Amino acid sequence: MRKILFISIILLVSCREEIDLDLFPADQRMVVQGSIEPGFPPYIILTKNQGYFDPINSNTYNDLFIKDAEVTVWKRNENGGIDSIKLEPLPPPLDTLPIYTDINYMIQFLLNQETPIPYPFSQAGNSYNLEIKWNDNIITGTTTIPNPVPYDSIWIEETEFEYDEPRKCIIFCTYTDPDTIGNNFVLRSKRIYHGIKDSIPYLYPQNAIANDADESLLLVDAGIDILINGTTFDFPIYRPSDNGGFANGTYNSTHYKKYKDTLTNGKDSVLVAADTVLLKFNQVDVTALKFWRGVVRNVTSGGNPFAEPMNLSSNINGGLGTWTGFGATYYKVPINKDTTIIHNYTVEKGLNILDIF
Amino acid sequence: MNKTLFFIAFSISFLALSQEKFTISGYVQEESSGENLIGVSIYEKNSRQGTSTNQYGFYSLTLNEGNYDIAYSFIGLETIIKKINLNKNLRINIALSESSTKIQEIQINEDRVDKNIESVEMSQVKLDVQSVKSIPVILGEIDVLKTAQLLPGISSGGEGSSGLYVRGGGPDQNLVLLDEAVVYNAAHLFGFFSVFNADAIKDVNIIKGGMPSQYGGRLSSVLDISMKDGNNKKYEFDGGIGLLSSRLTVQGPLKKEKSSFIISGRRTYVDILSKPFLNREDPETGEPNPFSGSGYYFYDLTTKINYRISDKDRIFLSGYFGRDVFNFADAESGFGIEIPWGNATTSLRWNHLFSDKLFMNTSLIFTDYRFSFNLTQSDFAFKIFSGINDWNHKTDFLFVPNQKHKIKFGTNFTYHIFTPGNASGNAGDVEFSPDSIFKQRTNEGAIYINDEIEFSETLKMNVGVRYSSFQHSGKINPIEYLKNELTQNTKDHYRHIEPRISARLKLNTTESIKASFSQNYQYVHLASTAAVSLPTDLWVPSSSIIKPKFSTQYATGYFKNFNDNMYESSIEIYYKNMDNLIEYKEGVLPEDNTNTNSDDAFTFGHGESYGLELLLRKNTGRFTGWIGYTLSKTTRFFDEINNGMSFPAKYDRRHDLSATASYKISNSWNLSTVFVYATGNSITLPSERYIIDGNIFTEYTSRNGYRMDPYHRLDIGATYTPKKKKKFTSSWNFSIYNVYSRKNPYFIYLDLVNNSDNENGSIQNGNLTPKAYQVSIFPILPSITWNFSF
C-alpha cells in the first residue's frame, strides 16, 4: 500500500539526482538465517553484514559467507538433560550449497539418494536453542516448532485467457484456521518445473526442454490469524515475483502457444509445459512471524521514503537474522486445470532435504 | 474542586466593587456583511483602558461614570470613535467598514492600538485571512496552515507539507479547532493541502505557548479557526477557478439581519483531468492500460447557519465535511485499492448574555475522523479501518466585573470513541469479521478558570488553572482488556491540575516584557510510523500503559513597536519539556495489532525543545509583511529507540527564516513575495546491508542521524483586480512557486542499482552498485487562479 501512496506522490512533478553520502561506518556482525522443521536436520546460512556503500562483486559476495563458526543446536529432553547436535559446513564439492547442517545425514542422503527416515531430533512442539561461536563471540537464539496445520484441500483454476495467449492458472486452497489465536503462518513456494518444449530449431535444440525452475523457495506471504481466526475459507496463492514484490503472478498450464517470431515474421507454435509447484505452508511462533512479516513488508514496500525506517525484528542475540522453527506442511502441485489435492507431500512420498530450502 | 469554587466566589465578589461603574457592551460587526468581528480592540482613547471582542464578536467594558471617547479599531477597517456619556449601562453594537461612510456622531480616526505591547498574551498570532490570500502559494491553493508555517516557532513537515510543528512538538500536539470542533487530521493529499477552505474562514488564531486555560488536551499549540457566519444583509457569491481545484461560496440572509447562512465547497479535479490519460486501453496499440481506474481527488464542504433570537441570544449551527479518495486499479491482475479518509464536524452553539458583564457560549459538538483502506484482488477483499468519534459538550463564560478583571471559566466534556486499526475481509462468500470491532470508549473532562488581572497600568497578569480528567468508560473489548491486564491495574483514570500563568510588564507605550508558564496534559495520542502525516496514522487513548503526555513550557519575551505602531517587533525565548511521548517500538508493525489493543506496540520517552524567535512585522500601509527567524533545538530520548541515546526530532531545525512582503501598487495591482530558509530535515539512513533469502536488507543504526541539505525557496505573486462592473468583481492571481527552481530535498533514499543487461541484477553476480539519490518534488511552478464575487 505504501508503495502505491509513494507512486502517487512521484506522479507529481519530481526530480531525482544522485548524491554523495558519508554514512556511519558499520560494525561487523554475523547474519543468521537458520531453520528447523519436523523430520529434517536443522540448517543455517551464516553471512556477514557489509557497509552500505561497500563494493559488490563476486569476490566480496563469496567473502560474505562464514565458514569457520562452531554451531550447536540443543534442546531439553524428557529427562531434563540436553540433546545437542553439531552443524557443520558441507565438505567440497558439496560446499556450493553454503549451509551448516548435520553433514552425516546430508552425505548419506546425497550418496544413497534414498528417502531417509524422519530425523528424530526435530519435532513439532519443542523449543530449540542455537549457539554459534565465532571470532570469540557467542551468538544465540531460541525458537519453537509449532504444530503444522495443513490445508483442507488445494485445487487449480484457470484464469481467463484470450486466443493466442498462454493459459495461466492460479492455485487455490481451502484452509480452516484453528480456533485459537496465534496460528501465524509463513507461506513459501517454489516452481520445481517450468519447461518450454520448443520446435523452433534456431532458438532451442529440437525438442529440448528449457527448465527454468526456481532455485529455492520464495516467500509468498506471512501473516497472523486475528482476522481469520476459527474460520474456513478459500483463497488464492499467487506466484511470487522472482525479485520480491507483491505475489500476484500465475503459473503456466499445458497448452500450445502461438509464437510470434520476430526474426522470420512467421508464426510457429510452442508447447508450454505445465508447471509443477512445491508449496511449503508453515506455522511459526510470534518472534519468527515478526521477522518474516518484516521481510514481506520490506520486499513489498520497495523503499518507500515515508515509512519510519524499520529494521527486521531479529531473535538472534549478538547478531542479525532469524532462527525459525517451521511447522511445515508440503504440497506438490501440478498445474493442471481442475486438479484437486487433498493430501500433503511427505517424506514417505518422496519429500527430501533438497526440497526444504 | 474546592479551589475552583473559591475562584468563582472570589470573582463574584467583584460585582460588589463595581457599583459606581457602568458597562458598555455589545457586538462588533463588519458593516457590509454583518459578520461578527473577532479581536476588535475597544479602548478609551485618553486613558487607553480597553478590551477586545471575543470569538463571537462580543465585548464588555466597564468604566467609571463620565464622558468618554471609545475607539473601535480593527486592522484593515476604519477605526470608529464614539463619544459617549456614561451614566448607565449601555449596549452599543458597532459596524466597522472598509469605506469611509460617515455617520454623524461617529468620527473616523487612523488611530491604532498597540496590541502587541498591551496584551498579556504572548506567543500568539492572529492571521488575517485577507493577508493570507495575498501571499503566493503553491498551485494557487490558498492555505492558512502554510501561512502559519511562515511564523517563527512554527515549522512545516517538509516541502509542500501543511503539517504544523510548533516549538518542537509533534503534529498530534496541536489542538486544531474549527468552530470549536476538534479536527483530527487537518491535511488533504498526504499533507500538501490543509482541509480548511480559506473562503469560509473568518479568523485564525494561533497559540504557540502559554496556552490560556480555556484550551487544553494538547501539549503544544492551538489553532483556533472561526468560520464566517454568512452575510446577513445581502446574497453574495464568491468563487475561484484554479489549476488544482475550484471553489464556490454562497452566503446570504435567511431573514435579514436576523439569520444568515453560508455554504462553501471545494473539489480538486486532478482525477478528471488525468482520466483521458488513463484509458482502459492505449488508443494506438490497443494495449490495456494497467492503471486505468486509478485516481485521486478531495473535496470539502463547509456550511453554517446562524439565527439571532434576540439581542441576548444567538444560535449557530456549523458543519464541515471533507473526504479524500485515492483509487488504484491494476486492470490486468484484478488488483484494486481504494483509500477514502476524512473529517466531519458539526457544532451547535448558543450565545447568551446574562447581563452586560456575563456572556455565555454553550456548544454541542460532534467530530468524526475515519480512514479506510480497501483492497480487492479477484474474489478476495480486505479492509482496514480506523477512526475516532467525539461527542463534546462545552460551556464557556466570560465575566467582566470591572476593568481590572476579565474572567473566563467553563467546562468541557468529551466522550471519545476510538476505533484504532480494525480489519475485515472476505474470500468469495466467506466473511471475515472479527468477533467485535475493537473500540475504546473514554471520557475526557475539564473545568477551568482564568482571570486577566490588571494590577496597574504597568503590570497585567493572566492567571488560570485547568483541572482535567480522563478515564475509560467501563469496558472496551473485554477479552482484549483482560489480555492486556488493564483491569488488574486500573490506573487508567487520570486527574491533573494544569496551571497557566502569563504576565506583562509595560515599560512604556512602545515597549513591554512578557513571560509565561504553562503545564499541559494530553490524553489522546497519534501513533505514526511515517515521517510525514499520513492518514494511516492511528489515534489512541491513554490507558494504564499509555500515560498522558505532559509538558511544561517557560517563555519570556521583549516586545517593541516603532513608528507609531506601524512596525511590531518581538524577541521570545522558550524552553519546553515533554514527557510520555509515544512512538512505535522498533520493529513493530502496526498491522500486528489489528483488532486488538495496540498498547504493547508502543514505547515512551521524553522530549526537550528550546529556542529563540524573532519577529518584525508591518501590518499597515501599502507595504506590509513580516520577517520571522527561529533558532531552536529539539531532541528526543527513548530507552528503546536508538539504543537509549538522545536523537534529534524529525522536525528539529536549527535555523528557520521566513519573510513575506506584500505591496499594493494601485487599486488594481498587488505584488507579494515569500522567502523561506530552513535547516535540512533530519533523516534516518541505513549504514549497513545484509542478505536474507536472497534479498538485500538494510540496517539502520542511528535514528535521525543525518541532515538533508538546507531548504530554501522564493515565491512571487501578483493579484490583478479589474474595476468593479456593477456588482461583479473578479481578480486574477498569478504566482510562481520556487522562482529559482531550487532542488530542495524532499527525501533521500539509497538503492542498489542494477548495472547489468539482465533484468534482475543480483549481489551474487556482483552487478549491483550502491547509490544514494535525492528526490525534489516541486521545481518552479507557475499558477493562475481566477476569483470572482458578486
Task: List the main descriptive attributes of the protein structure presented here.
heterodimer; A: 357 residues; mainly beta; six-stranded antiparallel β-sheet; five-stranded antiparallel β-sheet; 4 helices; 24 strands; 12% helix; 38% strand; globular; B: 790 residues; Immunoglobulin-like; Ferric Hydroxamate Uptake Protein, Chain A, domain 1; Maltoporin, Chain A; 3 domains; 22-stranded antiparallel beta barrel; 6 helices; 50 strands; disordered N terminus
Walk me through the structure.
The complex is a heterodimer of chains A (357) and B (790). Chain A has 357 residues and is mostly beta strands. Helices cover 12% and strands 38% of the residues of chain A. Chain A contains 4 helices and 24 strands. In chain A, the strands form 5 sheets. Chain A has a 6-stranded antiparallel beta sheet with strand order 7-6-5-8-9-21. The longest helix of chain A has 16 residues. The two termini of chain A are 29 Å apart. The N terminus of chain A is likely disordered. With 790 residues, chain B is mostly beta strands. Helix content of chain B is 5%, strand content 56%. Chain B is built from 6 helices and 50 strands. The longest helix of chain B is centred in the first third of the chain and has 16 residues. The chains are: A mainly beta (357), B mainly beta (790).
